[in-house]
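FAQ
Q: What does a multi-component entry look like?
A: The components come first, one per line:
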Amino acid sequence: MSVQSTLLEDIASLWSDATLSIGQETDGRIRIDVRGDPTGLCEWLVKDRSFRFGGMAVREETDRWQLGYLFYSHDHGGGWVEITLRAPREQTSFPSISSRVHAADWQEREAEDHFGIHFTGHPRLGDFVLHDEEWGEGVAPMRRDFDGLRTQVERHPDPDWHPRRILHTQGSFAMTVGPIHGGIAEPAHFLLETVGEDVVRAYPRLFFKYRAVEKMAEGKPVLDALLLAERFNATQAFAHSFAFCHAVEKIAGAEVPPRAQALRVAFLELERLRSHVGAIRGICGSTALAVAESHAAILEEQLLRLSGSFCGHRYLFALNTPGGLSRDFTDEACRSLVDRLGGLDISLGDLDKTLSRSSSFLDRLEEVGMVTHQQSLDHGLVGPVARASGLVCDLRAAHPYSGYERYHMEIPEESDGDGYARLRVLFFEAQQSVRLIRQAMTGLPGGSVKADVPLSARGSAVGWVEAACGASIQWLWLDRQGRVERLRIIPPSFVNWHGFHLAAEGFAFQDFPIILATFALSVAENDR
Amino acid sequence: MTLAEELFIAFFVVLAAGALFTLILPRRHVPALIAVFGATAAALLLAVGGLVLFGQGVDLTLWSLPWLGSLHVTIDSLSALFLIVAALVFLPVSIFSAGYARRYDQTYSLAAMGLQYHALFASIALLISTDSVILFLLAWESMTILCYLLVAFEHEREQARSAAYLFLVMAELGTAAVAVAFILLSRAAPSLDFAGIRVSALQLGAGARWAVFLLSFFGFGVKAGLVPLNTWLPRAHPAAPANVSAILSSVVLNMGVYGILRINADLLPPGTVLPGIIAMGIGVISALVGILYATTSNDLKTMLAHSSIENIGIVATGFGAAFIFRASGVPALAAILLVAALYHMTNHSIYKSLLFMAAGSIDDSIGTRDLDRLGGLAKWMPVTSVFFLVGALSISAIPPFNGFVSEWLTFQGLLRAAELAGRAVKIAFVLAGVGLALTAALAITCFIKAVGMGFLGTPRTPGVRKARERTALTVFSLGLPAVLCLALGILPTYVLPILDRAAVPVVSQMPATDQLVPPFFSGSPAHNELPSGFVAEFHDIGAQTGQSILPGRGLVLMHRGGSDQHVVFAMSPSYSILLLVILLGATYFVVRVATRKRSVRRAARWDGGLHRLLPEMTYTATGFSNPVRVIFRAILQPRVTPDVHETVATHFRSAIRREYDEVHLMNRILIDPVAAAARWISDLLARIHNGRINSYAGYMLLTLAVFVLVAWVTS
Amino acid sequence: MTGLFVRGVLNGIRTTRFPRGPEGELGTFCGLPVATRFGTSAEAERFARLCPTGALTAGGERVEVDVRKCIACHRCAPQPGQQGSGMRWADGYERPLKVQRPGAPAAASSRKPFRRSLNILVVDAGDCGACLNEVRQLNNPYYNMHRLGFFITPTPRNADLLLVVGPVTDAMRHPLLAAWEAMPEPKGVAAVGACALSGSVFGPSFTCGTGVCDILPVDIEVPGSPPSPLAILHALLLLAGRPVPAMQGDGETNDPR
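Then the predicted structure of the entire assembly, as tokens:
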């Protein structure tokens, strides 16, 4: 806690004229109310104190706006910091912090499309979540007066939409990929500005799968909102439902029983393992190394069957509930799970060795899709992508939850930042997941798997989890009846898609699908 | 006077009349005048050439001067061929000028164009037909000057002026070399004409022979567009008006070839193989360099100009190989290769004039020649697109068009290097073959880019939609060479004897037709000399088809080997086109019958599900040719400055600017260093002119002292 | 290179016997609830109201299941520790439903062109990722749909079948229709997953629909959240007019897990 108290003292002394009040919320995060421009304080937190920008949440209250900027410390002990900016409802322009804290870039664009508020100093607002050729400008779906359930919305699409091209040279053009592209791929529209061989600038247009989950959750009771939080990205269903439950439990002040904590850790790692194996499969498939891809596919199917037979659903749906898990598992079942995972672990190790000896495979990955450490830092990247560039930050170690502090865990450190480094991180974390599951399920504590959580408490909390793609944050406000007042989801894919163009630029077209595969991002997770 | 001589004089009269009318009539009539008089003159010249080839002689004395001898015009068969080719180009280009030249009505002097055009035609005809050295050089020089004037026609444009000046400098260098070569040749000659030189040439020593070869080859090579002094070509052709570009690349380049052949195949054939190897090597390098720059150019006319360099390079490879065979004592193969070279030269003239005219038509219609800004022209200029496609297929050597036959013959000739003795020579042939193969591949890439990016797809700029076909006359002028391309491609067995008539009396020692076109038709005179088994083998596959209708020896083109292997390769473009037409027709018929009950639904092209596929999302010509640019980076050596990233508010990029600059290989290796050295020397010498009277007085004193000294020493 | 070859040989053949025989390994499918009779109509009513998507309708003492809306949240399943009361579970994979459209040819002969091979274009119209991942598993060594003549094609020009997952978000409406337009006849549509059949928890809203049938003429529906790969294979076999296996384990169990 001393790190936090030092921080509080420094803020009080250095930023006294910018801050209105400093306090602490019930879930432990420090809250600083600022006036005017929060840019300086945000930049100081990120650059001076090595905090990481988690996300931004805009809330529209009856008489005012509340903009919350969330930060978390890079290492253990620093905790979470929220910087809040309040403004009257008539105000429609806010200062942009993206030129200083570039990780906020997409958050501000999203807020502009969601709420129709403007961020002065941000040069790229518009045409982000709601595409101009479908919606045009002027629609703000997250506003209170916008009825999310109605199906006919007045809109002014722009028939003359042109992509914003920035490459100026003889013969440049913007090669288009998508939205329907590839064999079995999620929809995304890429505009690759090029002169013919190399991608000079990659411009992804996402949000084709925008389902307005944050809007749909408003006004719903907690259990119904849990379904939305779980299902918006089903390949990380357990992780996201955990983050939601984490927030609810914090608001209610509930203690999760140790058996539930250990089982949750096991499931989180099982999901991470399956997700990483799927990502490895994707990388092998993108380089057309069929034998390796089949090997990884075998592992993935085995993990899916393992999950299905163990808990009744291949993707671990409907397991998390506020207070713990929705059902219990016998100790023998857990032991047999660990045994079967041992065999899978050896098979995964074999795949790792085989791939490291295939020079034609490594040629496609080494020094391809480079993201430097500084770029990762500037863009606020998270997860295996960031760790491959030397940005070692893992929420399981820095802000442990669900009992992670009890287990022995290593964070992979790679600094190459290329596709092969990302692959190595995936293998390391996958094999570590097996070890974590073994630690969690060996010597499972007895007791119940669910604590009683009163679901009608009012309050706000931040729930987080280190999902397979990186840090996933869910910021929840509940009203007096225990219904969701505002749910802000900041998934890791959203953060990492922001930095994807750094890897794709400067490499040939043929490398593009491979770079995409090594990032292993989810469009469903980004689009919500 | 024979009919040919009368027509020849009529030719000059028509041109003179045309020039006169150009001066008299108001300038807006000039395009029509060029068309009428130019086309008439071309027709006359065509007749002259044909008559000479088929026996009539032309032998005129223009005037006699006491101390220089008489100035004589003699058209032999080689000249007749070049006259025919020139006429075949001038005819459609003159008609094309009727429509095209009108764009200069208000801006530049059309009278000047008319005068220069007619004069150029006359000087070219004179150049080809004279056998007097003085007249040759006079005509050569006047052709150069007239070309300079025509290239600088749009004299308000800096680009045209500088291109013309560069052309003039290089052409004069070439002329100087050629003049020295003629001087060396005529020193011992009894008379200052080709007949005299032919007699005395054999007495020249080895050193003089080498000097003559090198000077004539490189001197004429400047005009022909051979490496290394060909950098004027890609600058002059785009700068000149389209009709002038067509003439430049289709006729003037041939003059260089004519000069080389006249001296090195007629007057003083080389006795060793080394000159031939040099010629072949220069040819291959020109071809490679030319096509490489053509593939990476995006301006339509620059691309065509580089492509001309490539084609003349192939011609040079052909006759270089012919020189080697002749010097090695294999005249049969020399004949084949020489005929192949002449065939290719003819073909090049036809399809290049077609392509340049089409490019001019497009430029006139839209205002831009930049392939990156065109696209979709097939929709708005369908006829021009079809003719451009014909030209592109011909230049890419795709059957059934003419380019295929001449390149095939060249390759077949090169393959016969096995019959030569020395190892070095054989290696040279192998390298030449490989180089030509690479050239052919790049040529196809280049023209796929041109046709695909320029004529297919979506317009990259809105201005393209305003393109319209020009007048019917323009379309006719494009159609004529297109038909010729097809004809020369499907009837090679009729063209080869004509080329033989041109080559044999002058430069070949034996006809190539005998080795390439066996007399399959029973009616032809040599039919009975063929072994009956040979004929029977080909009878089954229809070599005799059409014998009752068609004259000549047959329709099969065959590469006959030595005694151990009778047939190396056989093909028949004539039969192929017939088969192609039948197959296509049958396929069409079958498809129509089989699908007559099916309904056809037309749907938009699939673009991934976008609302609109915008033109900026489709490939550009630069993008298409970028891989070639990347692969040949070491040769092209582009000066790529690092990208300039402009950002707004840190991290947000607002622009990425990339500049790409290339210096032509020849400039880099040869011309720029030489020019730099020349400038350095002249700077040094310029210091002498320091403007001080005292120094000049000192120079005079110095000169006087030197003279006194010399006189004292030598007395 | 030899390492990869040896690796491939050592991995062996793992392809399932399906459809020639049943697939018995656990975890391959997880089933859906079936119509259940309860003791009292109040109990039936109580269980019917548990469903967040309205898939359960109580009629007296019997609760009917609309599988098109079931999202496998297991809230209606018997909870351990309770009396064991809850909806009964099917012991088999999710049964695909063929859609009969008035006027559309129903006979299998209309599917003759697809009998030997079927080219599938997969369009993700807002899917959560689970259904798409199950489609991805269709060509892993266990299911290997290539042996059955089913292929994935990236372009609609070659496609016979448009396989749609997801509730059709607003932004994917145009691309989906464009893909359908670009496919040549004969063609069909398969809607896979609860989202594609009914919108599940996401629709209807201003940006999300209630399934593919609102937009395209669906030929076959595969319920489940997500449906197991076997269910999708079953649907493809139905569409191709090939013999389909009898639904394995048409009996039902009480305990879904």
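Q: Is there any commentary attached?
A: Sometimes. For this entry: The two ends of chain A are 35 Å apart (CA to CA).
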